Fold this sequence. Notes:
single chain; mainly alpha; 2 helices; 0% strand
Amino acid sequence: MQRRSIPATKQTAQQKILRLAQIAVGAVLTILSVSLLLSWGVEFGDRFFNFFAGEWVGGIIFV
């Protein structure tokens, strides 16, 4: 009697669900990371602009 093996390309339902969960978690983490980096960029950009606009210099001189 021959033994039938399951091809490696076939995935079980649990493996498919796990893969979808990994993709979903990865997408959420990517979106959160991008939004955090963008918020830091906006904050740095505001400070950079304000420094060269003289607001920081005026605040430092008159403190």
